[in-house]
């Protein structure tokens, strides 16, 4: 088959479109003929060697590596012990995450083997591009906001992450036009929250259309300078600057940083009775089946920034590196 692989860590230029072995099925797996692949930050974290992580957390990678987790396609073959799916079914998945952090997911390819437990039927009301844009971003938003869906230990904090009730609450989403952010806006609104979206002003029309009640253009004003007494902040950008959102919360409020590394406000949060909590998204076919109904009826939709054919994965990564992506970038497979 054809796949995009890299043989060393580096920038987008290390990605090569080349021949690669088609994955062999093992027990409990389904072989999917891929039609579309969603891009996510772990794709370039892996390509760069996870250099932002402490060395002891960096997974051991064996080259060559096929990056990627999010796929939508058609069932091509099924292991004998799998009874849930049939050849020809349209399906989508976030494949082996985080168990495939070292590159075992193999998403940027014409074929991918997927554990049946991580697979779900593609919502019939959307195409493969829209479906491939969903899994990691939507599961992240879902597991942070609606249902964690697993009891695996959190490597980033000692306590289990717990979503908070959203109905009637005031929720702010930072990075609201991005991959996770635009879906978090929709889920919070679906659950009855008053949603304040923080994004570039160019995204106002889109975010209004997705259900945001208020928009803060971060280019004109800092949200922490104008907002107070929030129940929850979802920081879909994360990093060291997340601490600034503590001043926007009411006492007892919650801050959910999607990317928590670098956060240094734990003492301040504890002193003010605030909860700062994160989790690591995990593959979950059952949740994708459940969420698929919301995608199918239009309650939730994925926004597509741009698409690239699989041989142009390098250009897609270069586009992602420039930032300010509206929704998701998707690779397509002929």
UniProtKB/TrEMBL annotation:
One of its GO terms (molecular function) is oxidoreductase activity. Residues 10-331 form the Enoyl reductase (ER) domain. SUPFAM superfamilies: GroES-like, NAD(P)-binding Rossmann-fold domains. Keywords: Plasmid. Gene3D superfamilies: Medium-chain alcohol dehydrogenases, catalytic domain, NAD(P)-binding Rossmann-like Domain. Pfam families: ADH_N, ADH_zinc_N_2. InterPro entries: ADH-like_N, Chloroplast_QOR, ER, GroES-like_sf, NAD(P)-bd_dom_sf. This is NADPH:quinone reductase.
């Amino acid at each position: 088959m054809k796949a995009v692989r890299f043989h060393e860590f580096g920038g987008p230029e290390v990605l090569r479109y080349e021949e690669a072995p088609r994955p062999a099925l093992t027990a409990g797996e389904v072989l999917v003929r891929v039609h579309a692949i969603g891009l996510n930050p772990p794709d370039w974290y892996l390509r760069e060697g996870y250099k932002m992580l402490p060395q002891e957390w960096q997974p051991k990678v064996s080259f060559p590596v096929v990056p990627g987790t999010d796929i939508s396609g058609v069932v091509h073959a099924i292991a004998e012990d799998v009874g849930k799916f049939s050849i020809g079914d349209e399906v989508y998945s976030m494949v082996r995450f985080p168990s495939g952090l070292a590159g075992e997911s193999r998403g940027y390819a014409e074929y991918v083997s997927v554990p049946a437990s991580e697979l779900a039927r593609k919502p019939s009301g959307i195409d493969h591009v829209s479906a491939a844009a969903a899994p990691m971003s939507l599961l992240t938003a879902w597991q942070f906001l609606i249902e964690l869906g697993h009891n695996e230990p959190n490597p980033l904090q000692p306590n289990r992450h717990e979503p908070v009730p959203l109905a009637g609450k005031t929720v702010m989403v930072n990075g609201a036009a991005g991959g996770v952010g635009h879906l978090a806006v929709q889920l919070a609104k679906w659950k009855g929250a008053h949603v304040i979206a923080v994004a570039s002003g160019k995204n106002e029309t889109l975010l209004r259309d997705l259900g945001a009640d208020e928009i803060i253009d971060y280019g004109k004003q800092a949200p922490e300078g104008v907002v107070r007494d929030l129940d929850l902040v979802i920081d879909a950008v994360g990093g060291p600057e997340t601490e600034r959102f503590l001043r926007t919360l009411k006492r007892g409020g919650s801050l959910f940083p999607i990317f928590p590394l670098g956060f240094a406000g734990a003492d301040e949060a504890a002193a003010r009775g605030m909860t700062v909590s994160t989790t690591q998204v995990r593959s979950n076919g059952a949740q994708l089946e459940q969420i698929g109904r919301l995608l199918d009826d239009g309650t939730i939709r994925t926004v597509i920034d741009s698409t690239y054919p699989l041989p142009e994965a390098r250009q897609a990564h270069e586009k992602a590196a420039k930032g300010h992506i509206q929704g998701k970038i998707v690779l397509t497979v002929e």
